[in-house]
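Researcher: Can you fold this with flavin-adenine dinucleotide in place?
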Amino acid sequence: MIRVIKLSVTGLLLSLSFFANAQWFTHSFEVMGTLSHVEFWLDEPTASQNDSGSVDKTNGNEKAQALIAQVEQEMFRIDQQMSPYKEQSELSLINREAANRAVTISAELFDLLIVAQHLSKISDGAFDITYASIGYQYNYRDKKRPSQAVISEALPAINYTAITLQKENSTVFFNHQGMKVDLGGIAKGYAVKRCLNLLKKAGVAHALVSAGGDTGLLGDRHGRPWLVGVKHPRAEHKMAVHIPLENEAISTSGDYERYFIEDGVRYHHIINPKTGDSARKVVSVSVIGKDPTYVDALSTTVFVKGLAEGLALINKLPEYEAIIIDNQQRLHYSKGLLQ
Ligand code: FAD
Ligand code: MG
């Protein structure tokens, strides 16, 4: 369902004319286990009046529908390729076979694994897609978690340095039996980036694309900044802070997305690769920056590293900023947001 918000412009010109009736188009759909949303402004003439005086409203709507279909297709394509929940995805293939042989993968997935490896290196392993070697044993819906004995046994399989990526023939090999990888902390940001690029190529100058906690923005909201809210981590329908943004991406990682509480302890989906347990130093991290893929992964990374180390990392990355909410629900800002 496409919701068209009309911002009608007064002034009707005579026959063979166009209403200068630019519009916002918005659409939401489920993908990758989360809600995805696309919103953009089309300057195209959206209606024309022919001699008989009837109005033929196709141009803008037709173009809008085509663009929305392309965004959906791109999100579903990446879901098919990188989902840990789909047997036939490339990701599932490497989880089945890469510990036994060097698996040839698409250049696209290879390049994303290279970005993930880079983020592991600069974060001293706080971002580590092999967290899934233990991560897949958590089931937040059914409130299930691995025992400490199972974690201790599987912990050596969490080790991004044990992934061999070979550019020449685009292969990936796991130098550890039992190793698994998961792109839940980076592939949604990548999908947002791909969709923004697609809209930009089509001439769209003002757009928002989001998938769960990952949002990318093209331009401003047609004359004013986009106002993006960061959810309050402990108050369901409240925002902790609203941030005016233009032409940026923002990702939020929170311990309130996928979790359960057992004996007063919160087990959630952001795993500390060093312990195999949920990371517990902060409750929410939002990272802002130009590249949606990096922003997605950096929010998870800073969450794992905690306040001091997380801010130290972000303050070393000139193109990125962070808003961290600690366990006492105090807000902390990286230095570029304090100027
Ligand atoms: P972020 O904080 O950005 O990332 C947290 C996620 O990153 C965790 O869920 C985990 O996947 C991963 N992670 C945890 N710790 C680390 C770490 N230390 N280093 C690196 N990564 C870490 N969910 C469903 O329920 N059903 C689906 O069908 C489904 N399909 C998906 C398909 C794809 C292609 C992807 C990418 C995810 C899918 N998911 C699905 C997962 C769901 O979307 C995740 O909960 C989501 O990716 C978490 O993103 P986030 O931005 O909320 O959390
Ligand atoms: Mg994310």
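Model: Folded with flavin-adenine dinucleotide in place. The chain has a mean pLDDT of 91.
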